[in-house]
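Priority: low. Protein: Biosynthetic arginine decarboxylase. Input follows.
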Amino acid sequence: DKLYNLSNWGADLFSINRKGNVCVHPSPNSKYSIDLRVLIDDLIKRKIKPPILLRFMDILEGRISAINRAFKGAISDNEYPAQYRTFYPIKVNQQRQVVEAITEFGKRYNIGLEVGSKPELLIAISFATGKDIPIICNGYKDKAFIETVLYATRLGYDITIVVEKLFELEKIIALAREIGISPKLGVRVKLSSKGTGKWATSGGDGAKFGLRISEIMTAIELLREEHMLECLNLLHFHIGSQITKIDKIKSALIEGTRVYAEMCKLGVNLEYVDIGGGLGVDYDGSKSSYFSSVNYSVEEYANDVVYQIKNICDEVGVSCPNIISESGRAIVAHYSVLVTNVLDTSAQSLTPDFEEVLDSTETLAPTVKKLVDIYKSIDRHSLREDYHDTLQLIQEAVSLFNLGYLNLHDRAVAEWLCFKIFQKINSIVERLKLVPEELQNFQLSLRQTCFANFSLFQSIPDSWAIDQLFPIMPIQRLQQKPEINASIADITCDSDGEITSFVGENGRTKFLPLHRVKKNEDYFIGFFLIGAYQEILGDMHNLFGDTNAVHVTFNRKTGYKIDTVISGDAVWESLKYVQYKGPEILKHVRDTLEKSVASRKISIEQSSHFIELLDRTLVSYTYMGE
Ligand code: PLP
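Result:
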């Protein structure tokens, strides 16, 4: 638990059971749980292969409840005279079953949907049957987008178009007149306040979206002239996702509410303030303002939102608006976990053992002999000196090899000895109270590359794109001390496909502690908190496609219930994505094979075996099999 900081990022949804396996709970601290290792073993028995994306739908319910409970509490504590409503931004995870679950669980909280494109608008329209699920449209909108909204409004849907650019407003006014409908309108204001971290540019004067204050004045005048000012009832701002510092949120709220109050004073009949997304997730459990963490809780966030808005409205003497937040990350991040197998704990299993050289050093080169001496004599007192000498000797060995004075065997022995010496130093360092500074990061030099059966670009693209930290840990043997410090490499042929930053005991670490995998042992690692943005941002680098996905719900009697299995892409599907056709490839190979059979390069049996193999490969999973 401590090694991976699980209790701090797990939000009480993940724990370790007595068997040493990671468990998932439907809601914080619930007595119901699913043992991840047991679940994976059961799925493999059902012939579902790793990597497997596990989606725990009940967790979505828990997160929606937590946010709404926090706002309910804040509204009651602050005697806030209006209401709160969550709008789920579909872009964070558009999966049909996710939106379905969110709208279903969300009924109790009158949840709405936020969309930012035509496809997302159609998704939202397909879930709502009228005013039951209100919709907010952000993003750039063309004529077809606006027309669709206007016709849907005529049908009785509750849709608000948020104006992001002035030219949009002109289009909306013209189309509304043509169709003869009063649209519900909002404006997005470009605040001077900025968020923090990677998404800070979503706010501030240079932000891509929103109207400047002067443009808002123009919009008001335009609507007044067109006798449509009563259509404008929502003010929106969004200063970025994953805002790590609560004071940035407060500044945005103060500025945004001032804009609201001034607009009210100008006679705009605003009913809603939509504070956008930004409610962050504590990915590393450090509760800091580092960008993979946040320095506030959901309760503190809700309290600040309600308090700041009320404070300014009371001071200015305008009525308090209904509050909307578009929290996406905070709703979906926790609900999915990718589990996959570690392919080997490399160096350990296959590296030849040169133990015999310790007894007979006569044939070894003098440089290598010196390494043997260090290995035999090293102790607490000679630690630093031996460390320096080892580094120097290994360099010397490489130079001698390059000059042709060291043979391959001796170079391999030098490499092996260096590793053994470092292991010895490490075991001494672990017992020391006062560790010399240069040895403090010593474990790093023992870091091994472990290959895991996944594509970082498909399953956790933000790890590559923006260095985002996701909690990663083994899901079994957690009652045993791990023996290996590893980096995790994926199976793409891209050296960027390696993770070298992990969530550890003291925040961020440069290695993941893993257990030595025994021969024929199945050993799995889990990638946690990957439900927000990753599924849709993932790409098909090296044509590794979608992973198998399994929707799991908690069941009192049986522990868990498998609701849906969505097969990952097969090889032919990945190929189709880039315009190749499986049958054409087969035909091409068959023609070549016929020629080879005719010229007796290959037997008929081998030729048909090859065709069978290709046939099987085309329908197989894109990830590693046996
Ligand atoms: N609303 C808008 C306008 C956004 O651009 C975003 C994402 O950046 C969100 C909501 C969702 O933000 P988050 O996932 O941080 O809650």
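The mean pLDDT is 93. The first strand starts at residue 14 and ends at 16.
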